[in-house]
């Protein structure tokens, strides 16, 4: 079989060009391992990490930094707004053996914007230029950036911003194809990812609204992107990367035959392996919010887990719900 399509960033080969989107509360070690086990992922990601706090975090204890040896390659996303925070944060990421470093320039959350970070930075190109230059000076690792389209549709502004990033040494751009203020229900503007691609010479990855093989094909047709980044669908369908590898990139992936009940229980097991007891239930609730969307009456599953007082209770309630739809584990 032909070699599967890939993106090469220095020594890092991202093959297939399928990226896990950074998601706070979701893209922790347990979900990353679940996705890895399902196959087809090109590059894993952490959730956003505060550059200010990162140097003080204890890698062995921090739920944001817990990582199993098989989680390779893993990109760490930095939320940074001050030049003096760049060097210590990157030194820490070197110590953590990051395979790549991503800069968050797109997060629209008000708390993040008040810090002058995330999407707020797209309004401050001069500051971003100094941040990227400082980061570039500190590391030879692949350095990437994740952006939205900006405050309003402004081609000149977006073009200048993307070219500036490339000029300062950003090696790949992932583009969440929405404006800063646009909610998730709005259709993503995939053709705008194609515009970004026409302006720069680095790989451009499309993000936003990809939930199926059909979405992925439409997105690629509309954007011509070099790769795809999947966010919420990774928690809804952790097997989506394997499916896209097969159906979009034409490369076989061996996927373990797990029904959704078995997959859910495996996720609980991974939470137990990765986190201290008090950190597990919150993460299960967050995951279940998305996983429940697989079912027509999924809100019953989500609220049963949401109102659980312990992990054991949540697991039991979820198993009861899921067993109505799926055969028990091992029974397939
Ligand atoms: C719960 C949640 C947390 C997120 N956290 C981050 C984050 O830490 N950093 C970031 O750049 N984007 C974050 N995002 C945005 C996603 O990375 C992605 O751009 C967005 O969900 C659109 O992709 P999707 O339609 O595939 O979900 C988050 C999104 C969600 C739903």
Automatic annotation (TrEMBL):
* SUPFAM superfamilies membership: FMN-linked oxidoreductases
Please tell me whether the keyword Ion transport is annotated for this protein.
Answer: no
PROSITE patterns linked = UPF0034 (PS01136)
DUS-like FMN-binding domain: residues covered: 20-281
Cross-referenced InterPro entries: Aldolase_TIM (IPR013785), DUS-like_FMN-bd (IPR035587), DUS_fam (IPR001269), tRNA_hU_synthase_CS (IPR018517)
Question: Keyword set for this entry?
Answer: Flavoprotein, FMN, Nucleotide-binding, Oxidoreductase, tRNA processing
In this protein, the active site sits at 107
The molecular function GO annotations come to: flavin adenine dinucleotide binding; tRNA dihydrouridine synthase activity
Q: Which cofactor does it need?
A: FMN
Give the main EC class. Answer: oxidoreductase
Q: Which domain of life is it from?
A: Bacteria
- EC no. given is 1.3.1.-
Q: Which residues form the signal peptide?
A: none
Q: Which residues bind FMN?
A: 22-24, 77, 146, 176, 207-209, 231-232
Coiled-coil segments on the chain, per record: none
Q: What does this protein do?
A: Catalyzes the synthesis of 5,6-dihydrouridine (D), a modified base found in the D-loop of most tRNAs, via the reduction of the C5-C6 double bond in target uridines.
What protein family does this chain belong to?
A: Belongs to the dus family.
The protein in question is named tRNA-dihydrouridine synthase
| Naturally occurring in which organism (per UniProt) | Thiovibrio frasassiensis
């Amino acid at each position: 079989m032909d070699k599967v399509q890939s993106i090469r960033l220095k020594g890092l080969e991202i093959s297939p060009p399928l990226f896990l989107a950074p998601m706070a509360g979701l893209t922790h070690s347990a979900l990353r391992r679940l996705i890895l086990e399902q196959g087809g992922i090109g590059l894993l990601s952490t959730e956003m990490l505060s550059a200010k706090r990162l140097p003080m975090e204890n890698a062995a204890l921090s739920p944001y930094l817990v990582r199993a040896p098989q989680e390779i390659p893993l990109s760490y996303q930095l939320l940074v707004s001050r030049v003096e925070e760049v060097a210590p944060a990157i030194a820490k990421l070197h110590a953590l053996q990051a395979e790549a470093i991503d800069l968050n320039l797109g997060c629209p959350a008000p708390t993040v914007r008040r810090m002058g970070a995330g999407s707020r930075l797209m309004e401050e190109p001069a500051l971003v230029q100094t941040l990227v230059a400082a980061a570039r000076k500190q590391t030879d690792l692949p350095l990437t950036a994740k952006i939205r389209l900006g405050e309003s549709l402004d081609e000149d502004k977006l073009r200048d911003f993307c070219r500036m990033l490339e000029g300062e040494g950003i090696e790949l751009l992932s583009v969440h194809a929405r404006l800063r203020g646009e909610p998730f229900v709005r259709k993503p503007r995939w053709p705008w990812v194609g515009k970004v691609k026409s302006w720069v010479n680095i790989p451009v990855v499309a993000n936003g609204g990809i939930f199926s093989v059909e979405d992925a094909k439409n997105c690629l047709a509309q954007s011509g992107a070099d790769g795809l980044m999947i966010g919420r669908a990774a928690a809804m369908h952790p097997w989506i990367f394997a499916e896209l590898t097969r159906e979009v990139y034409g490369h076989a992936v061996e996927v373990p035959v797990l029904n959704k009940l078995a997959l859910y229980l495996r996720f609980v097991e991974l939470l137990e392996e990765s986190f201290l007891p008090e950190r597990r239930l919150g993460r299960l609730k967050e995951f279940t919010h998305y996983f429940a969307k697989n079912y027509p009456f999924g809100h019953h599953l989500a609220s049963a887990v949401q109102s659980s007082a312990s992990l054991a209770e949540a697991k039991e309630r979820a198993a009861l719900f899921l067993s109505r739809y799926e055969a028990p584990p091992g029974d397939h």
